[in-house]
Design brief:
By secondary structure, this protein is of the alpha+beta class. The chain contains 15 helices and 20 strands. Helix 6 packs across helix 7 (156-175) and helix 6 crosses helix 8 (193-202).
Length: 432
């Protein structure tokens, strides 16, 4: 077998097809992305220059291997000699993290949002003294991480206070994800700056980045130092990024795909002068990339204002009483939203406020609950421009799911399906 393997390796060519990975199909039929061995080779070279990994690392595989993020990372982890463990039940991920104690795990923003929501849900029930201790510890953590990411020394008195904070609070929070995580590669959707900074303050570093199936995953990601929360970092080695006049992010480099499988016309459509057109809108400042939205997701109100739904969804969706949110607004008078509550948190709130209900449908129609969500939305969207703010919303009793065709396998909203399926509820928010 060893001889057979050696013969195969000798015949291997960098320009040969290594794998086909299909896009998520949020706006149409999924396309097979052809990635060569060379795409992965150059991607791994770039990751070695950006990330400090070794054969001492343990990587937990949590995302589906059909997702380019996890697939490419697993190949990279194998080449780096890491131990790879696989999560066979996503519902048990926290249990597995505490059992395996990995040093690295790829995850999407929803993972951090869920942990963040659980922490603050528990904090709301804590005594005033415990709340004060928590806030004191996180504030100290923020002071330390801010200095460390700028390569500044930490004063001895701050170090001492921080050690106490780790012992009393921060260490327990780190323990939720196993206690040994060095960093979390993160991509796939917008991540709230507030949530990102919270995890860094706790001492859990999120290497937030941006990429696509067509670019062998990573285009940009945070560096070890001088990274900017709220951005997706700087381009990795060997990859060029620029912004087109219409705001679209263009990418060039050895990690860009060969093309779409048996779709030469579709391939030609996404290339212009050797630059790959990502379909995403962004801003590039001092080398740091900020993602605004997908071009196909941008909405234009009937008043002519352009809105980026993902920005609004991230702003409101960070609330631990919100499980899912889908923004409506294209060719409409104002922005509205379909919101699926986080029912565990909501039902606790209802019980503690003596609100009775017979079903979830009954609960979300209760006037006190509707007002409760109205107030939280208003608070969370204070920083948005007037035309971006949600004016009307509808609480939903059932989650959007992949099984019902409302979500992709990578948990992205299929807006067209949602808008069609819930047309009556949407029209109702506009008095139609």
């Amino acid at each position: 077998r060893d001889q057979e393997l050696e013969e195969i390796l000798k015949k291997a060519d960098m320009n040969e097809l290594a794998t086909l990975i299909y896009t998520s199909g949020t706006t149409g039929e999924p396309k097979g992305v052809m990635l060569n061995h060379s795409n992965f080779y150059f991607s791994f070279q770039a990751h070695n220059k950006r990330l400090a990994v070794s054969d001492q690392d343990i990587s937990m595989c949590f995302l589906p291997l059909s997702h380019v993020f996890e697939r490419a990372w697993n190949y990279f982890a194998m080449g780096s000699g890491m131990v790879i463990t696989y999560c066979d039940d996503t519902a048990k991920i926290v249990t597995y993290l505490q059992e395996v104690k990995p040093t690295i795990m790829c995850a999407v923003p929803r993972f951090y949002e869920k942990i963040y929501a659980a922490v603050f849900e528990k904090l709301e029930k804590a005594t005033p003294s415990k709340k004060n201790l928590f806030n004191w510890a996180v504030e100290l953590g923020e002071q330390v991480y801010t200095r460390e990411k700028e390569k500044k020394s930490v004063p001895w008195d701050l170090k001492l206070k921080h050690k106490i904070a780790v012992k009393l609070v921060l260490g327990k929070l780190r323990g939720v994800v196993g206690g040994r995580i060095r960093f979390f590669p993160c991509a796939g959707a917008p991540l709230s700056k507030e949530i990102e900074e919270f995890f860094h303050s706790v001492g859990i570093q999120i290497k937030y980045g941006y990429g696509l199936t067509e670019t062998t995953a990573t285009v940009t990601c945070h560096e070890e130092y001088f990274y900017k929360p709220g951005t997706v970092g700087k381009a990795i080695y060997g990859v060029d990024v620029k912004i087109a006049p219409n705001g679209e992010i263009l990418v060039r480099g050895e990690t860009v795909m060969k093309g779409y499988y048996k779709k030469p016309e579709a391939t030609a459509e996404v290339f212009e002068d050797h630059w790959f057109k990502t379909g995403d809108v962004g801003i590039l400042e001092d080398g740091y990339l900020t993602i605004t939205d997908r071009i196909k997701d941008l909405m234009k109100t009937s008043g002519g204002k352009y809105i980026a739904p993902q920005l609004i969804e991230t702003t409101i969706g960070k609330d631990h009483f919100v499980e899912q949110i889908s923004i409506i607004g294209d060719q409409r008078k104002y922005v509205a939203a379909l919101i699926v509550p986080a029912f565990d948190a909501l039902e606790d709130y209802a019980r503690s406020n003596n609100i009775s209900w017979t079903s979830r449908e009954d609960l979300i129609q209760h006037p006190d609950i509707v007002q409760f969500y109205h107030d939280r939305i208003e608070q969370n969207q204070k920083e948005l421009a007037g035309f971006e703010k949600v004016k009307k919303f509808k609480l939903m009793a059932k989650q959007f799911t992949q099984e019902d065709g409302e979500m992709t396998p990578t948990m992205k909203l299929k807006r067209k399906v949602i808008n069609e399926k819930y047309r009556d509820a949407i029209d109702g928010m506009y008095g139609e």
